[in-house]
């Protein structure tokens, strides 16, 4: 038998498809390897993006896990105060789906905002007294008060807002940005995630990895979660007796082995592994410097509040976010849990606001003072709002609560090409439904991508025979918020 015919007989199906994809792997490798042909540089952008001049080059997403209550923080409703203690009108809840924690919404009593509101700044934005620092920068913010979503429970709603799908498995926002725009950082990940939760809270949310996952995109685009520690990334330090030159030699040999496998099988995950090993090597020096706040002016540290010196707090993460984007990270996602106040509106809501208000406002002003706010988009918001009616007993104030509410909620944005001092859209008189200039989650995603110079309909990835995108097959840019 001819040797070529014998080789064909021994070629397995897996090897056949692997080898026929070699060209794809080689193309990926060509982009990944740096000038010396071995070390992987910062991930490249997809050809053609950004497709037009971006207003923002980077995003800091202050994500409030649990559903912040819009009617207690930003969406002032005098009618709600007038109807306090009265049954929710049937017309307001007819045909609506609420979480099982409420049970039947019919007969529930309306609950007024727990603290007074005032207008602030030249824009006259309404902000609760729970948020004095946010109120002080109202003229820097663009409020969208007509957000609405499709999901009524936390994990599906967070996944929907961050990935465009309620089920896990699709790429998250940061992964799409890394894939489409590449990275400006060679020594830090393009997409970084930091998590925090208020001390002593009883309503923290679970941080699922798919909130920052890469889905079906190459895994090098997934978010890198930094730990709540002085050592944000484990195992960066070399073991005793291992010199940096020795580590470099070991990695060079490992790259050669992985490169051979890449040529043999064309698996893009091998290219991702090469890039990850190289990134970890460079992070050995970049991460310790990143986490060292000793060169920060005392005035800056003071503006974020005393908790800025404590790893794992929201204040610490806010300052880390600013330092990350200064060093080239494309997307920094801060996730702060504890906003799920089913029976703690009069207790833990106050703690949540205290923990996040000062640092969030300080971040915006810190970016502005450094000239970074113009091309950095800061977003604050959660996965949905909370019901204008009470969950619990109206006569037991310490146990007042509100259930999940997808039909109207508020987010704010700052910098990055949005109009400052603007309140866009509105909910009805009870804060029940978005009624004016409604903004669906997919519209919000399309707008964010537009600000980054991306046509959300063009940034796609073919998977299982279909072209996927962040906005699924929906979404329109909300032009009214664009500067």
Features:
483 residues; 15% strand; 15 helices; 2 domains; alpha/beta; two-stranded antiparallel ribbon; Alkaline Phosphatase, subunit A; globular
Can you offer a commentary on this structure?
34% of the residues lie in helices and 15% in strands. It is an alpha/beta fold. It folds into two domains: 88 residues, no CATH class; 357 residues, 3-Layer(aba) Sandwich (Alkaline Phosphatase, subunit A). Strand 16 and strand 17 form a beta hairpin. It is globular. The protein starts with a helix and ends in a 15-residue tail after the last strand. About 4% of the residues have low confidence.
Q: Unreliable runs, pLDDT <50, ≥5 residues? A: 22-42
The CATH architecture assignment of the largest domain turns out to be 3-Layer(aba) Sandwich
Mean residue pLDDT: 89
Distance between the termini: 73 Å
Just give the CATH class of the largest domain.
Alpha Beta
CATH topology of the largest domain: Alkaline Phosphatase, subunit A
Annotation, overall tally of beta strands: 17
Indicate the radius of gyration in whole angstroms. Answer: 24 Å
**Apparent shape:** globular
Task: Assign the structural class, choosing from mainly alpha, mainly beta, alpha/beta, alpha+beta, or little secondary structure.
Answer: alpha/beta
Q: What kind of assembly state do the chains in view correspond to?
A: single chain
* Estimated helix fraction: 25-40%
Number of domains: 2
Strand content: 5-15%
The major pleated sheet works out as:
9 strands, mixed
The number of helical elements comes to 15
């Amino acid at each position: 038998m001819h040797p070529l015919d014998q080789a064909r007989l021994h070629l397995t199906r897996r090897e056949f498809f692997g080898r026929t994809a070699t060209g794809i792997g080689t193309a990926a490798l060509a982009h990944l390897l740096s000038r010396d042909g071995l070390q992987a540089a910062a991930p490249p952008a997809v050809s053609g993006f950004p497709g037009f001049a971006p207003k923002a080059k980077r995003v800091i997403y202050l994500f409030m896990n649990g559903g912040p209550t819009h009617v207690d923080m930003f969406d002032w409703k005098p009618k709600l105060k007038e109807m306090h203690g009265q049954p929710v009108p049937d017309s307001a809840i007819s045909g609506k789906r609420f979480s099982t924690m409420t049970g039947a919404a019919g007969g529930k009593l309306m609950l007024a905002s727990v603290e007074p509101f005032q207008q602030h700044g030249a824009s006259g934005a309404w902000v609760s007294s729970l948020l004095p620092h946010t109120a002080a920068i109202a003229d820097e913010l663009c409020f969208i008060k007509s957000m609405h979503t499709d999901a009524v429970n936390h994990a599906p709603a967070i996944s929907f807002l961050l990935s465009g799908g309620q089920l896990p498995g699709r790429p998250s926002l940061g992964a799409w940005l890394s894939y489409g725009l590449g990275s400006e950082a060679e020594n830090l990940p393009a997409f970084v995630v930091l998590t925090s939760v208020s001390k002593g809270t009883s309503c923290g949310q679970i941080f699922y990895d798919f909130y920052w996952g890469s889905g079906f995109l190459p895994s090098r685009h997934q978010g890198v979660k930094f730990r709540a520690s002085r050592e944000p990334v484990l195992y960066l330090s070399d073991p005793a007796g291992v010199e940096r030159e020795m580590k470099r030699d070991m990695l060079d040999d490992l790259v050669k082995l992985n490169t051979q496998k890449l040529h043999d099988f064309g698996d893009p995950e091998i290219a991702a592994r090469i890039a990850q090993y190289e990134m970890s090597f460079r992070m050995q020096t970049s991460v310790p410097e990143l986490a060292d706040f000793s060169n920060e002016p005392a005035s800056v540290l003071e503006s974020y509040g005393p908790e800025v010196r404590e790893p794992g707090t929201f204040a610490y993460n806010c300052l880390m976010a600013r330092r990350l984007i200064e060093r080239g990270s494309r997307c920094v996602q801060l996730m702060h849990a504890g906003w799920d106040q089913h029976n703690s509106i009069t207790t833990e809501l106050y703690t949540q606001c205290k923990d996040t208000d000062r640092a969030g406002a300080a971040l915006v002003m810190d970016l502005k003072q450094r000239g970074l706010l113009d091309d950095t988009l800061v977003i604050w918001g959660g996965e949905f709002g909370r019901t204008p009616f009470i969950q619990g007993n109206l006569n037991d104030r310490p146990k007042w609560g509100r259930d999940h509410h997808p039909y109207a909620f508020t987010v704010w944005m700052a910098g990055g090409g949005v109009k400052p001092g603007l309140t866009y859209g509105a909910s009805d008189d009870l804060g029940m439904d978005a009624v004016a200039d409604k903004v669906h989650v997919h519209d919000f995603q399309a707008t964010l991508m537009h600000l980054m110079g991306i046509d959300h309909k063009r940034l796609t990835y073919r998977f299982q025979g279909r072209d996927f995108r962040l906005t699924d097959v929906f979404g329109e840019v909300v032009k009214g918020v664009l500067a």
